[in-house]
Specification:
Lipoxygenase-1, 42% strand, 6-stranded antiparallel sheet, 425 residues, 5-stranded antiparallel sheet
Length: 425
């Protein structure tokens, strides 16, 4: 046990370059706050994702034994900063489960200046463990021990850390070439190649869904088989069957002309409806569905639209790519992420369900199956601005429900959001 201060006590420390050791195995951050007790912005938050303050006065590093070092050069702290808060938090369990939770301050010569061991932690998951603060022209160390049952989010709110969702910008957007207007009267269908073994009724003269443009395949996307697209058409509800497909996940791009309810189910070999893929009352429905073809290569879907429809089965490599350019689309969709960890920022302008999940493919070696969808995911109703964090690619981002227009782009999360995200895991 450190021979130091008890909770609430304080002591002068040298105005010099101090090293603070925080033990044992907790996450550590430093907040540089003004006289009002609030940070001036994300730059005043120092944590493992942003381990150095722009002034260079406060830095974080870690040892393999679970000790985190906070280097605080008190001679270089900006005048506007009156306190440096030492914050400890845990992702699993409460701070009372951390044995030997303590902070020890060392002077430039390596000798102990002071310290504090938190012996009364309870169910809190975050705590201001200690602080360095200005007093009488010098600096003092205070043993604080103020815990937050609501974790980092409560602590952040108390100290002005802004974690509000960032609005999407509204410059010119990059429209996906496959996205066609859904409110205009659709064009007549051209002659369609009939898929082998699938009875297809000829569409009536009008109205018909607009034809799909030819799909382009992402050259660097390797998950899932590549095959020639299969196109089918019809004018009434019933079963859609496609034979001789490679087993594994594919996209089904569906367009239905006119007004009315549209639903699509997958059907198993026992003729049972299994997964509900579409349940929409939108006019001129259009969307891309993520479906896994069974081992026998026979994809069976049941759709209820008693109106002209067109379906195209596509490989995953034909999906649209997520970039930092804004993608403007409508309806359910399948998107590909191949870059580094980021957020997918969505702006949904519909009035019904908006459900988005992600499939992380790193380490998933079976191209005939999908891994479990990763958490977190989005499940909201009505107009929303939401961000979905995605790891390093390759990742499939699946908009399972999205009846309405939406925008999406990649963006880097703010420092505050990155710090607080651990509290939401």
């Amino acid at each position: 046990m450190i021979r130091g201060l008890t909770k609430g006590d304080n002591a002068f420390v040298p105005t010099a370059a101090l090293r603070l050791a925080v033990r044992n195995g907790v996450d550590v951050a430093a907040l540089l706050v003004t006289e009002q007790g609030r940070v001036r912005g994300d730059a005043d938050l120092v944590f493992d994702g942003a381990p150095a303050h722009p002034s260079g006065a406060v830095r974080l590093s870690a040892d393999e034994d679970g000790t985190v070092w906070l280097d605080a050069d008190l001679t270089g702290v900006e005048e506007a900063v009156t306190r440096v808060l030492v914050v400890a938090s845990t992702e699993d369990g409460a701070l009372r489960d951390v044995r030997g939770l303590s902070v020890e301050a060392f002077g430039p010569d390596g000798t102990t200046v002071t310290g504090y061991e938190a012996t009364d932690a309870g169910g809190e998951t975050a705590m201001v463990l200690a602080e360095l603060y200005r007093r009488a022209g010098g600096w003092k160390f205070r043993a604080v021990g103020q815990g937050y049952v609501d974790g980092l989010e409560g602590l952040a709110a108390d100290h002005g850390v802004d974690v509000a969702k960032e609005p999407l910008p509204t410059p010119a957007v990059t429209k996906a070439p496959e996205t066609l207007p859904v409110t205009k009267a659709p064009e007549a269908l051209p002659t369609v190649t009939k898929a082998p073994g699938v009875p297809v009724q000829a569409p009536p003269p009008a109205p018909s869904p607009a034809p799909f443009p030819a799909a382009s395949l992402a050259s660097d996307w390797t998950f899932g088989a590549r095959f020639e697209p299969r196109t089918l058409t019809g004018v009434q509800s019933g079963e859609i069957t496609v034979e001789d497909l490679p087993p594994g996940p594919v996209m089904v791009e569906l367009a239905v002309a006119g007004d009315g309810h549209t639903s699509v189910w997958t059907i198993d070999r026992d003729d049972r409806e299994t997964d509900l893929l579409v349940n929409s009352t939108e006019n001129n429905f259009r969307g891309r569905l993520l479906v896994v073809v069974p081992e026998d290569g026979r994809l069976r879907l049941k759709q209820t639209a008693n109106r002209p429809w067109q379906a195209q089965v596509l490989p995953l490599a034909a999906a649209r790519r997520l970039t930092e350019d804004t993608l403007e689309c409508w309806g359910p969709d399948v998107l590909l992420h191949t870059g580094g960890a980021a957020d997918v920022a969505f702006h949904f302008r519909g009035s019904s369900n908006f459900i988005v999940e992600a499939y992380e493919l790193a380490g998933h070696d079976d191209p005939t199956t999908l891994p479990d969808a990763r958490h977190p995911y989005i499940n909201e109703i009505g107009r929303r601005r939401e961000a979905l964090p995605v790891p390093d690619g390759p990742v499939i981002v699946h908009l399972g429900r999205a009846d309405g227009p939406w925008r999406a782009r990649l963006k880097q999360p703010s420092a505050a959001v990155s710090w607080l995200r651990r509290a939401r895991r």
